[in-house]
Amino acid sequence: METSRKFLFKLCLELGYKSIAELEQQMSHNELLEWVEYYSSEPFMADRIELQLATLTDVIIKTHTSAKDVSAVDFMITVSEEQRKKQKNAEQHHKVVGQLKDFGI
Question: Does the model's pTM come out above 0.90?
Answer without folding.
Answer: no
